[in-house]
């Protein structure tokens, strides 16, 4: 296993039980209410359309809240993640909710070797996934390999402009980190996570990469996908820039001032040709 996979996997294995127990992921709400959906999936309901009966795979599914939400919309879902601790929580949640979802442990770059190639009506990727991958072209290849002809990619992600901003600089929107993909990772050493918890991580070192929006789209083009929709949003489902954002009534955070200055997330859709 490469260094970045080893480091990132250890970090996410420690995050998983903390996230499952947090109010931020709201797992108990899924158990109590069979119609409950994650904020991320609910945000994109008008864009998702009718997915009932479709076979979908959620890449980098983490603890499975978005995967479960897509299942509740009628899709036949598979979730894939490289963290066994995350998948343990995902399977437990699906079991508690009576949902039939298959979860597979794998590095995303090997997804087309552990799942049926050309076997899916749609591939779904959610917020905060692509930044953990060093090469966007390899991801696009996997997406294309998993989709059947005419199958759809659906992705909601943090905007690469947001990832380039230093979240700790409250004196302004300071571009400090790479926008374009680089071979060298951005290395972090942090004992916290993005949910409220009193427990400090011991696997603190992680590697991340940014990918420009043009790089993502070009990679999809190279592997036979046609872009069908792209919408940039001025909101994101967590307080990405602490102290400078306000929460709306739908679980989305926006800049408190001058929202027009920075795109925070985007929704992209594409169709596999052939």
Automatic annotation (TrEMBL):
Alphabetized UniProt keyword annotations: Methyltransferase, Transferase
Protein name: Class I SAM-dependent methyltransferase
UniProt superkingdom: Bacteria
Keyword Methyltransferase: yes
Gene Ontology biological-process annotations: methylation
Methyltransferase type domain sequence ranges: 58-153
GO molecular function, one term: methyltransferase activity
């Amino acid at each position: 296993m490469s260094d970045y996979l080893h480091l990132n996997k250890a970090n996410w294995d420690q995050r998983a039980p903390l996230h499952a127990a947090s109010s931020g992921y709201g797992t108990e709400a899924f158990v109590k209410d069979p119609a409950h959906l994650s904020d991320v999936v609910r945000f994109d309901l008008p864009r998702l359309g009718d997915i009932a009966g479709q076979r979908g795979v959620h890449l980098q599914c983490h603890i499975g809240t978005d995967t479960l939400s897509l299942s509740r919309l009628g899709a036949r879902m598979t979730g894939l993640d490289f963290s066994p601790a995350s998948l343990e929580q995902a399977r437990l949640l699906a079991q508690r909710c009576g949902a039939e979802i298959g979860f597979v442990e794998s590095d995303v770059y090997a997804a087309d070797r552990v799942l049926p190639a050309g076997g899916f009506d749609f591939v779904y990727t959610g917020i905060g996934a692509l930044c953990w991958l060093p090469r966007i072209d390899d991801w696009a290849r996997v997406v294309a390999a998993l989709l059947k002809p005419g199958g759809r990619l659906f992705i909601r992600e943090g905007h690469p402009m947001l990832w380039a901003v230093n979240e700790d600089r409250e004196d302004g929107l300071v571009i400090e980190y790479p926008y374009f993909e680089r071979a060298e990772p951005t290395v972090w050493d942090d004992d916290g996570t993005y949910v409220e918890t009193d427990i400090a991580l011991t696997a603190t070192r992680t590697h991340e990469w940014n990918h420009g929006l043009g790089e993502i789209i070009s990679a999809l083009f190279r592997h036979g996908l046609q872009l069908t929709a792209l919408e940039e949003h001025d909101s994101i489902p967590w307080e990405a820039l602490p102290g400078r954002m306000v929460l709306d009534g739908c679980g989305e955070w926006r800049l408190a001032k001058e929202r027009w200055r920075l795109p925070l997330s985007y929704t992209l859709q594409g169709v596999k040709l052939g």
